Amino acid sequence: MQAVILAAGRGTRLQPITNNRTKAMCPVVGKPMVERVMDTLVANGVREFVLVISPDDPEIQDYFKKRSTIKARVDFVEQAQQLGMGHALLQAAPYINDDFILSSCDNLIAEKAIFRMLTMWVGYPPPNGILALLRVGPDELTRMGVVELEPEHGRILRIVEKPSLEEAPSNIGSVPIYMFTPKLLEYLKNVQPSPRGEYELQDAIQPLIEKDGDVFGLMLPDRIDLTLPNDLLRLNLQYLKNGHDQQDIRTEKIGRGTQFTAPVLVEAGVSISSNCQIGPNVFIESGAAIEKGVQLKNCVVLRGAVVPKESSHQNQVIW
Description:
By secondary structure, this protein is of the alpha/beta class. The chain is built from eight helices and 24 strands. Strands 1, 4, 5, 6, 8, 9, 10, 11 and 12 form a nine-stranded mixed β-sheet that branches. Strands 14, 16, 17, 19, 20, 22 and 24 form a seven-stranded parallel β-sheet that branches.
């Protein structure tokens, strides 16, 4: 099965972190966010990806061509204007030749949840679509596609994009990872811009539900999305604490008396002065500098950051 990853968004709510990189390229313990999303799919057998990217993001292509070790084919297609998920998927349509997974680059769910979706896909009756679902509170409902679900068989009867609380058919939101047959693309061609000027994916999903049926939902226990700077901290801490990198010190520029407490990842190209206390749960990106006597715990230090001497930091993203 192919996978289409939507990675053209700028990530304005992540500024200033995204002033000099896209959301897709924000680092999560040594890998860009988009690759962390792809890893969960590769672990489930996906070997072909189409990445929809911004023409203003040369870094993402350079990364996958020169530095990534992902064991999959990666093709790129540009979305010149940010006109919604439906528009982004249309840019990838010429590359899609079979059933496919569609995911945003900023939404992480567990590998076992991907496995459950794939298991449903080969079930009976054969689905035309599967949507990952999550029960959410009122604040999130108005920012998502919200579904009406048939309780007995898990079929989706209706999906409403960004409803008001009065219009919401339930408290079950659709998170941006899906599986579809190519039938969806035929309906997508007929979608018109919404009042917001965007081509909404939900406007193609609804006719798929009505005319072809067998669009199912899979309830998730949770997910992590990357929207605000604190989300980037949460993602990095989760990967560090789960043992993805217990202690990995790749730089040689370390002053005397500096100590590390695992889990820590320090990339090559980081400068760390003397008498620092680094860790636990710290990721330092290449191009950062840590001055004398700094203490870091539960922190992410991004490229270009200079952490001033004798300062102490906890539970922060530092840029």
